[in-house]
Amino acid sequence: MCLGVPGQIIAIDDPAKRIATVDVAGIRRKVDLSCIVDEDNPPESCLHAWVLVHVGFAMSRIDEAEAEATLKVLHEIGELAVEREAMLTSEVQ
Amino acid sequence: MKYADEFRDSALAAGLAKAIAEQLDALGATEETPVRIMEVCGGHTHAIFRYGLADLLPKSIEFLHGPGCPVCVLPRSRVDDCLAIAMKPNVIFATFGDAMRVPGSKGSLLQAKGDGADVRMVYSPLDALTLARRNPDKEVVFFALGFETTMPSTALTVLKAREEGITNFSLLVNHITIIPTLRAILDDPEMRIDGFIGPGHVTMIIGTEPYGFIASEYKKPLVVAGFEPLDLLQSLHMVLKQKVEQRCEIENQYARVVPNTGNAVARKAVEQVYETREHCEWRGLGDIEQSGVQFNAAFAAYDAEKKFAIHNASVPDPAECRCGDVLKGLAKPWQCPAFGKACTPEIPLGALMVSSEGSCAAYYQYSAVHNEALEEARNAKAS
Ligand code: SF4
User: Fold this and answer.
1) Does the predicted interface ipTM exceed a cut of 0.85?
2) How far is the C-alpha of B60 from the C-alpha of B62, rounded, in Å?
3) pTM of the entire structure?
4) Can B2-68+190-252 and B76-177+262-307 be said to share one CATH topology?
């Protein structure tokens, strides 16, 4: 119900009404940009952006730098655990 | 999908599960005395079951499934209000699909549709507004339910209706807010929670600041999490890391979508249209003060409660329901006497069995847990 899915803005249909077209895993539909535009970020700036879509509204721009940073930490924890396991269980006897 | 596959890597998940197991050992957690983490959001509950995360982790961690599923906490009386409006002549009643099968005391919206009411399932409140535009001689009512995540969408739709001068459109508002409910849960003397996985999409709107009291007053860690399996594992790792280091802070694992400040534009729209509701009823949890919103005076013309003179009257849940205990994490779904018997996804008694985010539906659908009630229920169905 509070589901949000990532999609990419592929066209700005009506900048004045803040209406765009979003592609969500191949499905296209109109999406309202009101929540992600302001004076500094006009509707036109949303073209090609990845956004989080919830019930017909783009609710947030996906921040690629943050995504990369999270993934980096994830890899560190995940790989370190595997490394440590390998060290601890190494069968040298 | 962007940043979905990257967060579903199974080798990495196994590595994280190991790291979590080490943390649990360091904390001295055992199967008998597990670390208890509440995932507040129903979307997280669904993901935990769907990806089998509990099976990946040691038994020394226990997930408590929180109240963050708006369909699950929808009281019977509110469904009755929906039906009262939907059954009126000349009304088109539009709702998110999730709400269609929630039982009220006189049936569900789906049953009302079968009985001839014009009930439409829509994806967006904007689609309900389109219905109003296309049917000027009908009254279109949209059932606005959901947490903070969904409030901006209904507020903006009403603002749009006003801008266009559309008057045959109104909303039955059942928007609820998570913060008062978290406080109520924390104040419940029966509850024992060691930390929280915080709701990602609610926080995208409200930001991380409103959770501050959980760390400062109640000394519990909370980590806002995304919805992919690795998001959840990483968030769990972050909560446990705080425990190991004896910190309690509000952290944000889902920064790619959730800025710590939330979404000010969305909040402004909500503030323009809604005001706090003094009392709000939650199914299973009862009345929680100031845990919802209603239209403010300036938008009274869009309030379906006023337009159709609805006076919400509370109706008790069926006696055998243990929805409240399950919602608070005090009982597991299979401990409810109705589970799998009087209450199944096909014929639900409680709302936790309706939504895919409800913990009863999740246990029923996914759980490999071997317990009598579940086995019995499955066998009964098969025969
Ligand atoms: S099994 Fe049904 S009645 Fe029992 S707690 Fe779950 S939803 Fe409620």
Assistant:
1) yes
2) 7
3) 0.91
4) yes
